[in-house]
Amino acid sequence: QVQLVESGGGQVQPGGSLRLSCAASAFMSDENSIGWFRRAPGKEREGIACSLGRDGSTWYDDSVKGRFTISRDIASGTLFLQMDNLKPEDTGVYYCAADSFSGLCFGEYWGQGTQVTVSS
């Protein structure tokens, strides 16, 4: 059974940082895309960062570009999302998602999600 397990969520003040982790050892190949999605309160789930799986290329939504960094640690089989300069609008449930192909984060496989709350 394919598993993606997120951790690292929590509550932080505006301007603070958090690092999310996703245990995803089955998806560390450069033939897999793997990324992060977010569901903000009252909104649809949206993609925010993707490790495209080829040439180390990545994609970021404009809302997080310059503040969030996605990375893979192949040795540990972990996907990370470093989130800096967090804003209240970053609040939501963050999901790790992976695909059996590269080049696009579509979301064939999903984790259970981890809550991030940015509030003073």
Assign the structural class, choosing from mainly alpha, mainly beta, alpha/beta, alpha+beta, or little secondary structure.
Answer: mainly beta
Strand elements, count:
11
Gyration radius (Cα, Å) is 13 Å
Kindly, what is the distance between the CA atoms of the first and last residues, rounded to a whole number of angstroms? 40 Å
Report mean pLDDT, rounded to a whole number. Answer: 95
- The low-confidence parts are none
Helix content, binned percent? under 10%
> Beta fraction of the residues?
over 45%
Q: Main β-sheet, in a few words?
A: 7 strands, mixed
SS element count, helices? 0
Overall 3D form: globular
Give the H and E element order: EEEEEEEEEEE
Task: Offer a concise description of the structure.
The chain is mostly beta strands. The protein has strands spanning 5-7, 10-12, 18-23, 34-39, 45-51, 58-60, 68-73, 78-83, 92-98, 109-110, 114-118. Strands 2, 4, 5, 6, 9, 10 and 11 form a seven-stranded mixed sheet that branches. It has a four-stranded antiparallel sheet with strand order 1-3-8-7, with no helix packed on it.
